[in-house]
Amino acid sequence: MPFLRESLASIKYHSMRDSKIGSWSNMEKVKVAPMHKLIKKAGAERVSEDSAVALGKALDEIGVKIAKEALDFAHHAGRKTVKAKDIQIAMEKVLKR
C-alpha cells in the first residue's frame, strides 16, 4: 500500500501545481526546477514557484517563435532538417525585435 499512497500524493501535488499554472497546461515542455536554477544563476537569493513557472512560459513562447523562424529558414534552403545555423539566425532575428 505505500505505493498507492505515494501515487495519490503525487496526483494531489500535480493537480495543485497545474491549477497554479492556469491556462498554460503544457508544463511538461519546460520544467520548473531548471527555471529556479536560471533565476538563481542570474543572482536571485530566493525564487518563488510562480516566477519559475512564468519564466518557463516565457522561454517556451520565445523558443517556439525561434523554432518556427528556423524552420522557415530550413525550408527556404530546401531542407527538411533544422540545423544549428538556422536556430542561430532565427534567434538573432527574433531577439532583435
Could you state the order of secondary-structure elements as H and E? Answer: HHHH
**Low-confidence runs (pLDDT<50, min 5 residues)?**
none
- Output the radius of gyration: 18 Å
Quickly name the level 1 CATH class of the domain at 48-97. Answer: Mainly Alpha
From the spread of the alpha carbons, the general shape counts as elongated
Distance between the termini: 55 Å
Strand content: under 5%
Q: Helicity, in percent?
A: over 70%
Mean pLDDT: 82
Number of separate helices:
4
Number of strands: 0
Q: Tell me about the biggest sheet?
A: none
CATH homology-level superfamily of the domain at 48-97:
Histone, subunit A
CATH fold category name of the domain at 48-97 = Histone, subunit A
The assigned structural class equals mainly alpha
Q: Could you walk me through the main structural features you see in this protein, from its secondary elements to its overall organization?
A:
This protein has 97 residues and is mainly α. The protein has a domain at 48-97: Orthogonal Bundle (Histone, subunit A), CATH 1.10.20.10. It has helices at 2-21, 32-41, 49-76, 84-96. The protein is elongated, with a radius of gyration of 18 Å.
